Amino acid sequence: MAIFETQSPFNNNAPVANNNADRPKTQVYGNAGYWAVDPETQERTHISLPLGLGIDTMTPKAAGKSQLMQAKNALLTQLKELSEKLAPGEEMEIPLTFVLRRVANHEQQDATNNSFIAQMGDLAQMQKAG
Predict the structure, then answer these.
(1) What gap in Å lies between CA 122 and CA 109, rounded to an integer?
(2) pLDDT tens across 109-122, in order?
(3) N or C: which end of the chain has fewer CB within 10 A?
């Protein structure tokens, strides 16, 4: 018997179980941060966020006719191509921007005008009737 893992249709934010052993191990990371001088060694040091973006294991999204998504996929492709030229342990500074974005608040919809809820009826009454 096969077991299929899918997202719950009732909660799109529900985590999906996956097997990390099946995923390729990331070898190339994109690290956002800034440059600073180490006061002890006087060497230039990159201070990055605790987690990087796995560039080589990131997959492009279906773009269709979306020029924006095509550009995002092209950026990913270029980063992957550049990373192939790096020797193990080597790094390259790329002048990209860093955008911090907060998720927009979605206003609560008034349920009294929701035609789907109106069509649903009262489940408790349906159970008693059945």
Answers:
(1) 20
(2) 666 777 777 776 66
(3) N
Q: What is the pLDDT of residues 7-51, one digit of tens each?
A: 444 555 555 556 667 788 999 999 999 999 999 999 999 999 999
User: HEC states along 69-80?
Assistant: HHHHHHHHHHHH
Residue 123: its pLDDT value, please? 66
128, containing H or E segment: helix 123-129
**How far is Cα 28 from Cα 89, in angstroms, rounded to an integer?**
10
The CB-side HSE value for 126 (13 A sphere, CA atoms) comes to 5
Residue in this structure with the two tokens 């990209």, named with its chain if needed: 96
Q: Which residue has the tokens 């001088």?
A: 37
- The whole-angstrom distance between residue 112's C-alpha and the CA centroid of its chain comes to 34
Buried b (16+ CB within 10 A) or exposed e, 9-48: eeeeeeeeeeeeeeeeeeebebeeeeeeeeeeeeeeeeee
Query: What is the dihedral sign for C-alpha 66, 32, 17, 80?
Result: positive
